[in-house]
Specification:
Shape: globular
Radius of gyration: 20 Å
Number of helices: 12
Oligomer: single chain
Helix content: 25-40%
Strand order of the largest sheet: 9-8-5-4-10-1-11-12-2-13
CATH topology of the largest domain: Alkaline Phosphatase, subunit A
Largest sheet: 10 strands, mixed
Number of strands: 19
Number of domains: 2
Mean pLDDT: 95
Low-confidence stretches: 3-8, 10-15
Length: about 425
């Protein structure tokens, strides 16, 4: 199998390296695509992506909230190993991470492979140098440094404007989803004229709350789906509006004549928020939970003519994007990482290690978490999990109980194996500072 993979890469290298467009959305529920079972919303553009490429049905975000997953995407490391066990915020007393300033990032590596690197949208890994996009490998940045927006039209967070073009403060007008889509289109259109391949990281704030679709989109949903309550109708319209924006970005790739030269990846930073009427289908829990609904996310990879249309049950995590894309871009990785390359799965329909261990951590403040962390760990079909630092671990077998309806007390040989592996990880992570 390894020989076949090397042959595939050799054939690929005879042509130009692919452009890479990595789309990350925010809080997108596993059940909030019509191709994933939703009956009350319509997502034709994302459904088309899912059907045209490799749909990864057991793909996991590295955390159940924003910043940690994004840190893993950038570094190929577990969140706490990269210094981001929790959400980075503009208020120091409520911030629970600090991206390791010395860690190479995905754009750092891709630049070594000849890529031009750009980012549009939500950063959420730092508010000042050295942890803003232009300092962490991106040649170009047009977007939002902060976490959530208090309003999709004013773009403020706590009355602060975090919108930037590179390092310049800007004050654009319009709905953030539409702005980010247009800025991505502008970037693709310009870069398509260049000889070197490009990497675009397009990170939307949507569908993260506040659930704020344009009024005409909400009116359309209410007319079509009169049975929906106000909260669900707003979320459906918000997702459909996002789908429309992504569709326009994909159309710009085709219009630029670079469709077959461009790999498009879609994923989410965590599961949907149940409180905000988002859906994770049959999966247990949602955002902030270590149930499958909080961490398993809709994900696909599309590369026309190279990646065949199919579905895969092989597990992966956000941190796997870095080694996978570096292998495809023929860029050596010279630092320790935790992610695993999925190139064999993507290009050859191969298999991953069936006994792979995957770990999740989230640290948070407020009265619910009190600055403490909680964890989950999966090896093979077995998963040890908790969704609060104040509750005991539970043991689940995802093969016999895929919806986690019958969790058991965390005891016995398998629980002991997982517990020991988690302790080993905690010892390693304990050496990494997460405060500046």
């Amino acid at each position: 199998m390894r020989i076949l993979l090397l042959l595939a890469l050799a054939l690929m290298s005879a042509h130009a390296k692919p452009n890479i467009v990595l789309i990350l959305v925010d809080d997108h529920g596993y059940g909030d695509l019509s191709s994933f079972g939703a009956t009350d919303l319509k997502t034709p553009h994302l459904d088309s992506l899912m059907s045209r490429g490799l749909r990864l049905d057991q793909f996991y975000a590295n955390c159940t909230v924003c910043s940690p997953t994004r840190a893993s995407l950038m570094t190929g490391r577990y969140p706490d190993i990269s210094g981001v066990p929790g959400v980075i915020r503009q208020w120091d007393k409520d911030s629970w991470g600090h991206l390791d300033p010395k860690s190479p990032t995905l754009p750092d590596y891709l630049k070594k492979g000849g890529y031009r690197t750009g980012m549009v949208g939500k950063w959420h890994l730092g508010f000042k140098s050295p942890n803003i996009p232009n300092d962490r490998g991106f040649d170009f940045f047009h977007g939002f440094l902060g976490d959530m927006m208090d309003d999709y039209y004013t773009h403020l967070r706590g009355d602060v404007n975090w919108m930037r073009k590179n390092k310049e403060v800007i004050d654009p007008k319009g709905h953030a989803t539409e702005l980010f889509s247009q800025w991505a289109i502008d970037y693709v259109t310009a870069e398509a004229k260049e000889e070197a391949p490009f990497f675009l990281y397009l990170a939307y704030n949507a569908p993260h709350f506040p659930i704020q679709p344009p009024q005409e989109w909400l009116d359309r949903v209410k007319a079509r789906e009169p049975q929906l309550n106000e909260k669900r109708a707003k979320n459906v319209a918000f997702v459909e509006h996002l789908d429309d924006g992504i569709g326009k970005v994909i159309a710009s790739i085709k219009a630029a004549g670079i469709e077959e030269e461009t790999m498009v990846i879609f994923s989410s930073d965590n599961g949907g928020s149940l409180y905000h009427a988002q859906s994770n289908g049959k999966l247990r829990g949602g955002k902030q939970d270590h149930g499958e609904g909080g961490i398993r996310v809709p994900t696909c990879v599309v590369w026309p003519g190279t990646i065949a249309s199919r579905r895969s049950e092989e597990p992966g995590m956000t941190m796997d994007f870095l080694p996978t894309l570096c292998e495809i871009a023929e860029v050596p990785i010279d630092q320790p990482i935790d992610g695993q390359s999925l190139t064999d799965v993507w290009l050859r329909d191969g298999k991953t290690d069936p006994e792979r261990t995957m770990i999740w951590v989230r640290r948070e403040g407020n009265n619910t978490y009190q600055g403490r962390a909680y964890y989950a760990i999966r090896q093979g079909d077995w998963k040890l999990t908790q969704s609060s630092p104040f509750e005991p671990m539970q043991l689940v077998n995802l093969k016999t109980d895929p919806w986690e309806e019958r969790p058991k007390e965390a005891k016995g040989p398998q629980a002991n194996v997982l517990r020991r592996q988690l302790m080993d990880h905690l010892q390693q992570a304990g050496r990494i500072p997460w405060q500046p």
